[in-house]
Every structure is written in structure tokens, then in C-alpha cells.
Write the C-alpha cells for this entry.
Amino acid sequence: MLLSHFQYTYIEAGCDEAGRGCLAGPVFAAAVIFPPEYCNPILNDSKKLSEKKRIELRPVIENEALAFAVASVSPQDIDKINIHNASYKAMHLALDALTVKAEFIIVDGNRFIPYQDIRHECIIKGDGKYLSIAAASILAKTYRDDFMTHLAAEYPSYDWKSNKGYPTIAHRNAVLQHGFTPHHRKTFRVTDPQLKLF
């Protein structure tokens, strides 16, 4: 069972991103604020849930959250500012869009660029520890998957419907054969399995 909140003094938002390691498409991030003592035994890290379960949970999260928001940063911006900064920018944009102002932020991972003057806490594997981060991971993942599935019809050679822009062997081979699309991140090495930045 995941924890409801890291602290209870301030209005707390959980943040997470999806698509950091992709060859193509934007990076998405979400911010979620749940009521105090919120409980949901099914919510978990999006990577530990099936696609069907993530899709089922999305409207539950949206209906039961005090506030939620999803934002993205384009491949062009990723190439300009790098994927790490783009991930934090997407989180900041999601926080900007919340209808309830966060007073404390918990973030999945070990690094974060401070948002305004609001205190934050980085939590390694936080999407498997706190409900709001888990919910943010589900929203970011499902919104991004929808985006890539929509793009897939326009670019069938890259199989984005299945790989969602991640660097599968088939996806890398398609880039080598057909070249980049406007939705590819040009600063990622197509032939490098680790996808290190230039």
C-alpha cells in the first residue's frame, strides 16, 4: 500500500515524467494533488501496471484528485536544452497548470530544479512509494502513449503504436532506413543502446 503524503502541513503535489528515454516524441510530465489521507490500494508505479490497468486508473485519478495537470516539452526543445532540463521544464509546466497551488512538491528521482520558492523533496523510486507520484506517473504515461499512438498513423514505418517512441531494435532500424521525422530527438544516438547525448 502506497503512502498518502510525505508531509501534512502543506498542500502537496506529486510529480513524475514519461518518455525520458525515447528516440521520438515529447517528454510528458504530470502533477497530482490528492486530498489528505487519500487511499487507493490499486494505485502503483505505472511501470508495474498493465496498459489496461493504467487506462482504467486515469479517470479515477482525474475524478478523485483535488487537482491534476499534464504538460509536455517538444523534441525540438529537448534537443536545445537536453532531456534532463526538458523533463524538469515539463514538470514545472504541469505545476503551473494546477488549479490548486502546490505548497510542497514530491518528485520521483534524485534531482529536481526548484520550482518558484516552493519546498520540494526528491524521492528515489517515489512512484512506488507515494500515491500522488504514482498517479502522476500514470497520467504522464497514458497521455504520452495516446499522443504517440495518434502520431503512429502518420508515420507507420516506425511502429510508434507499439513502441511509443522508445528505442526498440525495430525503431532504431527504421530510423537508419527511413531517416528522422520532425518528431525525433536529433541529439540522441540512434545506434547507441544507451542513447547517450552527444
User: Anything to note?
Assistant: The longest strand covers residues 12-18.
